[in-house]
Amino acid sequence: MKKRYSILITGVNGFLGSKFAEFFIKKNFIVKGTVRKTSDLTFLKPFSKKIKLYYADIREKESLRESFKNTDFVIHSAAYASDWGKFETFYDINVNGVKNICELCIEFNIKHLVHISSTSIYGFDTRINADEETKVIKNKFPYCVTKLEGEKVVKHFIKNYNLPATIVQPGVVYGPNDRTTSYKLIDALLKRRMVVGEKGKYFMSPTYIGNLTQGIFLILTKRNISRGKTYIITDDIKMRWGEFFGLFCKALNVPFPKISVPAWIGWAVAYISEALYTILGIDSPPLITGYRVAISTSHFHFKPGKIMRELGYKPDKQIEKHIKETVEAYFQWKRQR
């Protein structure tokens, strides 16, 4: 009888986690996930009876221990993913939290850990056809800094404790359930509040959630090859921000944003906005942040050549179809709220 593997997904209620769970349930895995007691479980409702939830906080190692028992694989997708916030919070979750996950993987003899990082760790400058050998450009964005440090933690455990792990670096992830990027973009377009940097002329790297999931499945099924490696996962499409926004406009049947600002104006507004928000102690991000200006006013294009060559990754490039699905999911999500 073929063994039924168990998989633990941290942050299973979020965009990435919920889609990973849905996929592995369909693959007949025993799926477990960690959530916080205050987590919104909306995205888990369609398959809530097929997943075992554990209330835990990745910053508190002991709270995670129970979830690691009788587990074969771990996908660490929980993170503080934002372009605004206190550095201490980013560090506690994206670095110290990763250390807790790695230590527990060693303690419970986990067969393989997939750590979700980001191409943003490389920093922002002219990136066209970039790969895993790309030089890191240091910046002060807390998300980029701490995700890079989190990668260093995983690599430390791979080297010094023989941790069976793979690091995944997606591009700009989009798709149904994406409250972080796609749904906010849709909101802005519907309310005519969208501002485009430099007329959307710079290249970006979209990563459809289905492609990211496919890549992770390949990593786990071919872990003799993927062990100890780092893989960029994108749609392998060279697309400009303006084209990406345009597909959302088409799906929504709204006009393309009229307001386009030069990079220098964007940086000035971001600097002033962030200073004011810091002084006033406002936790929510300003409309324009330095991170948003940086990623949208420099070429940010990465190729998934390594995972295509080594693991046979073949991305689904039907981006217009997937953006339409994302828009439909957005309106369904709105009706459920």
Shape, please?
globular
Spatial strand sequence of the major β-sheet = 3-2-1-4-5-7-12
CATH class of the domain at 6-178 and 206-235 and 302-317: Alpha Beta
* Largest beta-sheet details: 7 strands, parallel
Distance between the termini: 43 Å
- Kindly state the percentage of residues in helix: 40-55%
Total E-strand runs = 15
* Tally of separate helices: 12
As a percent range, the share of strand residues is: 15-25%
Rg, Cα atoms, Å: 19 Å
Order of helices and strands: EHEEHEHEEHEEHEEEHHEEHEHHEHH
From the 3D structure, determine the CATH topology of the domain at 6-178 and 206-235 and 302-317.
Rossmann fold
The CATH homology group name of the domain at 6-178 and 206-235 and 302-317:
NAD(P)-binding Rossmann-like Domain
Mean pLDDT level: 94
Poorly predicted segments? none
Task: Please state the second-level CATH architecture of the domain at 6-178 and 206-235 and 302-317.
Answer: 3-Layer(aba) Sandwich
Classify the secondary structure makeup into a structural class.
alpha/beta
Describe this structure in words.
The strands form 5 sheets. The chain has a 7-stranded parallel β-sheet with strand order 3-2-1-4-5-7-12, sandwiched between helices. The chain has a two-stranded parallel ribbon with strand order 6-15. The longest helix has 21 residues. Helices cover 44% and strands 17% of the residues. It has a domain of 219 residues: NAD(P)-binding Rossmann-like Domain (Rossmann fold, 3-Layer(aba) Sandwich). It is globular. The protein has 12 helices and 15 strands. Strand 1, helix 1 and strand 2 form a beta-alpha-beta unit. By secondary structure, it is of the alpha/beta class. Helix 3 packs parallel to helix 4 and helix 5 crosses helix 8. The mean pLDDT is 94. The N and C termini lie far apart (43 Å).
